[in-house]
Amino acid sequence: MTEPDVEGLQRRLAEFAAARAWQPYHTPKNLAAALSVEAAELLEIFQWLTPEEAARVMDEPDSAHRVADEVADVLAYLLQFCGVLGVDPLRALSEKIDRNEIRFPVGRPPGRARHPDRHSSE
Amino acid sequence: MTEPDVEGLQRRLAEFAAARAWQPYHTPKNLAAALSVEAAELLEIFQWLTPEEAARVMDEPDSAHRVADEVADVLAYLLQFCGVLGVDPLRALSEKIDRNEIRFPVGRPPGRARHPDRHSSE
Amino acid sequence: MTEPDVEGLQRRLAEFAAARAWQPYHTPKNLAAALSVEAAELLEIFQWLTPEEAARVMDEPDSAHRVADEVADVLAYLLQFCGVLGVDPLRALSEKIDRNEIRFPVGRPPGRARHPDRHSSE
Amino acid sequence: MTEPDVEGLQRRLAEFAAARAWQPYHTPKNLAAALSVEAAELLEIFQWLTPEEAARVMDEPDSAHRVADEVADVLAYLLQFCGVLGVDPLRALSEKIDRNEIRFPVGRPPGRARHPDRHSSE
């Protein structure tokens, strides 16, 4: 059995939707909404957990399966969104990391090296 | 230049976070929250657009760049979340498609073949 | 029967949580996550609907009930979040409308009077 | 100065949107998306904070203002959503608390009295 890759998954998702005539629903706006809903469902698993409980979420088969299932849903809608709009998600991320390496240089003095998003509104 | 792949991107993201000592922030719960926030930022681009305007979002360089940037952020947090918890996102999606092919057979009579999530709470 | 008001609802929610010993879960961060999750569940009702179908969502008792139920959940977590942090949500909104009346004056020339959030990242 | 109330705020928001000709954007689906986006922006403030840091978020004027501002945005879109669809948010919440008092009786034996949403998928 070969490892699944992003392109192959995108093709399977497109064929799946086409075979069920779901493409009219799969507009960019609807897929962005669905992606956001699935990401919230992944967060829901963690919302009442302490950091310690959250770190053990893969130890129980039930919650491990639930996490993998929501990860799959998030990735499915992300890949379908990208497919519909012609965005290459791996390239987009690769270029973003390139930019972030310049934007957040290593070795800043302490106190400025905190996570960038903590200061995103400043 | 070779095409970026998921494993290579996960490695770059892990090195990036380690070099800046961001791992303490990157708990599963925080990463799930960040993923959800980034997915909402992608949705924000579309929230006031008509379906027609949304379909043209890649035609303008500014909005095209913004879309690619948010896609990168969503994928970055999804891959980091999976890295921290040891989830293989491509395998998770591949297995989910396998299950959905059984759950939503092709060729149902019309009226029942609508998108499953429209009836998810029923 | 008297109309419920925000203060009375906040009191009932606080008593409900206290009676079940749920306060330890109701940290500001957890409540913000829960609010976000419930808002996504409200969006889920609409994600595959056309604008026309969405406008008729209150015509059917089932979907009307579902909408009211998710509205209740969003408001419940918003009020509990505000209760825990001492934010007055009605005053916060009143002051925000005051600010927006200055920020978005009536009678701008067409083309600039579009919805502000369409340009929020520019 | 009188205290703002929900009905008065709803009226101000409707007049504000009408004066700027924003009603065409304010469909139920768009408002549900915008509500979800604003809830995520509130969560964003907390995403990298420890529970201890999150509890002190109102101590600093900057972050206190940011929290109140996002609370106002969430409430604004919730009230506008309810206005467009004719949902009474206070009544919806009051009735939901009624139902929850039956669904989650006080004094369950320990171990079953945990927060309901921790078991929402079971």
Task: Write up what this structure looks like.
The structure is a homotetramer of 122-residue chains. Chain A has 122 residues and is mainly α. The first copy, chain A, has a domain at 28-103: Helix Hairpins, CATH 1.10.287. Helices cover 64% and strands 0% of the residues of chain A. Chain A has five helices and no strands. Chain A is globular. The termini of chain A are far apart. The mean pLDDT of chain A is 90. Chains in contact: A-B, A-C, A-D, B-C, B-D, C-D. Chains A and B meet through α1, α2, α3, α4 and α5 of A and α1, α2, α3, α4 and α5 of B.
Brief characterization of the structure:
4 copies of one chain form a homotetramer. Chain A has helices at residues 6-19, 28-46, 51-55, 61-85, 89-103.
| Helical residue percent band of chain A | 55-70%
> Which stretches of chain A are poorly predicted, pLDDT < 50 over at least 5 residues?
none
Looking at the overall shape, the CATH architecture of the domain at 28-103 in chain A is Orthogonal Bundle
Number of helices of chain A: 5
List the helices and strands and how they pair.
The structure is a homotetramer of 122-residue chains.
Chain A: H1 6-19, H2 28-46, H3 51-55, H4 61-85, H5 89-103
Helix pairs in contact in A: 1-4, 2-4
Kindly list the characteristics that best describe this protein.
homotetramer; 64% helix; 122 residues; mainly alpha; Helix Hairpins
